[in-house]
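Collaborator request, handled under Task 6.
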Amino acid sequence: MISKQSGTYLPELLSPAGDMERLKAAIQFGADAVYLAGKEFGMRSAPLNFTPAELANAVAYSHSRGVRVYLTCNIIPHNEDIEKMEPFLRMARDAGVDAFIVTDLGVMAMAQRVAPEVEIHISTQTGVANYAAARRLYELGAKRVVLARELSLEEIANIRAKTPKQMEIECFVHGAMCVSVSGRCLLSNYFTGRDGNHGDCAQPCRWKYALCEETRPGQYLPIDEDKDGTYILNAKDMNMSEHLPELLEAGVDSLKIEGRAKSSYYTAAATNAYRRALDDALAGNPLTPWVTDELDKISHRQYSTGFYFGRPDQNMDLGSYVRNYEVIAVCKSYQNGVAVLSQRNRFFRGDTADVLEPGKAPYCVKMDHIQNEDGEEIHSANHAMMTVLLYTNTFIAPGALLRIKTAAT
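Structure tokens returned to the collaborator:
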């Protein structure tokens, strides 16, 4: 790996952390850095996010494991937000965050004044799509620019060639994409009064839509409908796992996984897959085959490569999410042929669990012999969070996630 500065190694795998559980999953499964939000000023208000005390604990936990923490302050702020921003930035500085992710130039200047030791990362919300803008932001003090999502690999390489080498470039490699320019959208505010540029997006681009002629109220005409409805505003999810060598060749320093509002399972599985994909790319090895399979085991829409290889195709009728697997248990410990599991979803004796462990290829374990915590044989684990004893000769590491394929697939 390439050392850009003391204590920082690039290229970097950057994972989302919507709360402490997801932060721990990201770190356990191989993230070099995490990005998260406080209770204010982040572009995702749906996750639990972090109180000041929780933020300090999250930073201490991450730093003790060599992982950096970037705090999102990337809403498009109004006057009343600016008045509350300075104490928030001071709190985050004292918590020890490594960088502020900002959209607004006023917030950037304030952060530089109150916390000059904290790096500035320019959010994708800023919409940086050319080398002149990136270079100017670097001159103003930005350490990193998260480029607009509408750029091709060729354009990214051109930005890299025409900006200072010390300026880091970050790009999204996986997750949900907005039907908007780098996340700037007015639909949510228009339909619901929830400002998507203030962190409160209601995701109206994910709703079902139909056409209604004004003189025929109540008669809805589908637009390219499939069995699940019509989703004319949806964007396909991004998946660049097969193309990390091209991203690195173009000069991308940080590979970002979208998903602070998604589950800890999503965070774990996506981080685990991209950790292996990045390690393969850095070693000059072909992509490990199970990486592709793993990314099909998390909830997602149809995958695409976004704008990286030119204009995306025009098929926007995507249907609902694909959900092939669900987590049934977390392994708490393993000793003398017994795995102690904490149940998450119902499972039955005789099921075959697909096991996810950090850095390992997924493997299967038959669940033919299960007991409750009193040592009584059970047919099923149907109580939330119940302790289950699984007898197996296969060692299952503490923290491993057990999942099964859903009946729908």
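The cover message to the collaborator said: "DSSP finds ten helices and 23 strands in the chain. The two ends are 40 Å apart (CA to CA). Please let us know whether this matches your experimental observations."
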